[in-house]
Amino acid sequence: MKYEAVIGLEVHAQLKTKQKIFCSCSTLFNKPQNQNTCPVCTGMPGVLPVLNKEAVQRGLKAALALNCKINKKSIFARKNYFYPDLPKGYQISQYNLPLAQDGYLEIESDDNIKKIRIHRLHLEEDAGKNIHCGEESRLNFNRAGVPLAEIVTEPDFRGALEAATYVRELRSILQYLDVCDGNMEEGSLRCDANISLRPKGQKEFGVKTEVKNMNSFKFIERAISYEIERQTEILEEGGRVIQETRLWDSSKGKTLPMRSKEEAHDYRYFPEPDLRPLLVDDVWIEKVKSSIPELHPEKKARFISQYGLPAYDADILTLSKDLADYFESCTKEVQDPKMVSNWMMTELLRELKDKNQSIQNCSVSWNALAELLNLVKKGTISGKVGKDVFKEMMKRGVSASSLIEEQGLKQVDDKEFLVSAIHQVLKENPKELEKYRGGQEKLFGFFVGQVMKLTKGQANPKAVNELLRAKLKE
After folding, report:
1. Residue 44 CB partners (closer than 8 Å, separation 6+)
2. Calpha distance 286→275 (Å, rounded)
3. Per-residue pLDDT tens digits for 147-162
4. Confidence at residue 411, expressed as pLDDT on a 0 to 100 scale
5. What gap in Å lies between CA 142 and CA 124, rounded to an integer?
6. What pTM does this model have?
7. Would you call 239 exposed, middle or buried from its count of C-beta atoms within 10 A (0-12, 13-18, 19+)?
């Protein structure tokens, strides 16, 4: 390509508070339409906003974890625009003096560490929601006034994969902090991307478009990739990119025009007269800083050094705090980190994906998995049988020991029984036996497999190997 993509992201993270940012209405999702509302969040005349301290606390926590400078004084402003889902005709946000600025987040890009600069993190209220029903539209104001932290990057991304990687890492950090639940399907985390192209080597930016409200990592990557291709095609044909806001249509796999792109002056920002400046002192900052836990990058490095896990496994297992806690709890009982990692990376994550479940509502608890793995380690059941037992545990939510007892799955160590099975397998496979004795020793695994098949996986593999080797030497 003779063009270089320049991308900046704006991520809106819903802060995990019980009440809205300027009133006491509930923030619970999926309540009946317009139930979580009051005169303040529906913009009735004569009402006054009152700032929710918990929202500020969580915003500070996110800002400090993202290496931002906290402004000791920040100011709320009115951002004026007229959409049906904004009942006041303006949004209370922050503009000239945000809560925090000048931070960064490091991500992995092309096997290197890349520092993504964070321009600002500011607090604001969410708007309501338009619901289109055929030819009419309805308004649900339950979301109006929900507290948001808007995290704005510098234009440091050069590709769609980098952008998706950043949002994935950011989401992980916010979840670790318990600042945002990160539920993209419910809109708790939404991403807008500003995308422009410029000839390679040129310093000046091209004309940008903004793609709004992408709510999955896959959509972020696909929408940005599409927009880069669309702008490239326009420029190569001698056209001119129009500055506008576009929406990602996942069903059509393309971005579509929404409206002309607003600039800051279009919003006619001015200080919110009903809210005093927000003052944050050093004591408050230090208190919040001391509450920040071990985050994904540090935990990943520790999993590699402490447990000897490959970098890929450590990255996957620590991206979610709940998954990391599950691993560490299970490992304490099993005393075999690599075995726990292997089962979680393959069996557990596959089953969760197939059932569209999260680790929080997994039907196999960490101690249930630990019991199963210890039974496999002791030789009570084979690894193959263990995998079948695990699938049943996921289906029925029962313990490994009860399933093994119920289905008679314990490994058989009885020498007479195993010798009889080996004898039958050798008798039924004379050609393979002749080839083995002729020097094709790789067929040993074939015989072991046949014995396991004959015994329905219940034979002790170690005992089978020893007895079969002795039999073949006769």
Report:
1. none
2. 25
3. 999 999 999 999 999 9
4. 60
5. 16
6. 0.84
7. exposed
Angle at 455 between CA 450 and CA 458, to 5 degrees: 115
70 token code pair: 């906290």
- pLDDT-derived band at 408, boundaries 50, 70, 90: low
Can you read off the two tokens belonging to residue 393? Answer: 């545990």
**Could you tell me the maximum CA-CA distance found in the chain, to the nearest angstrom?**
98
Per-domain boundaries in the chain? 3-288, 296-407, 415-473
DSSP letter assigned to residue 12:
E
456 residue type, one letter: K
Report the SS3 class of residue 17. Answer: coil
Q: Which two three-digit tokens encode residue 45? A: 């005349």
Helix (H) and strand (E) counts in the chain = 16, 16
Q: Name the DSSP class of 159.
A: S
* pLDDT-wise least confident of 89-98, 168-177, 339-348, 395-404: 395-404
Overall average pLDDT of the 225-242 stretch? 95
> Is the dihedral angle over the CA atoms 197, 203, 204, 205 positive or is it negative?
positive
Write the pLDDT tens digit of every residue in 265-294.
688 999 999 999 999 999 999 999 999 999
CATH no., domain 415-473: 1.10.10.410
Inform me whether the pLDDT recorded for 118 exceeds 70: yes
Handedness of CA 153, 156, 160, 162 (dihedral sign): negative
Sort 91 into a burial class: Cβ within 10 Å, 0-12 / 13-18 / 19+. buried
Under 8 Å between Cβ of 101 and 115: no
Q: Of 164, 228, 127, which is closest to residue 11 (Cα–Cα)?
A: 164
Kindly state the tokens that stand for 472. 């073949």
Average pLDDT, integer, range 194-201: 95
Q: Would you tell me the crossing angle of helices 160-176 and 53-65 to the nearest 10 degrees?
A: 130
DSSP H or E segment with residue 176: helix 160-176
Residue located via tokens 């209370």: 92
Q: Is 301 helix (H, G, I), strand (E, B) or coil?
A: helix
Tell me the sheet residues that pair with 193: 9, 211
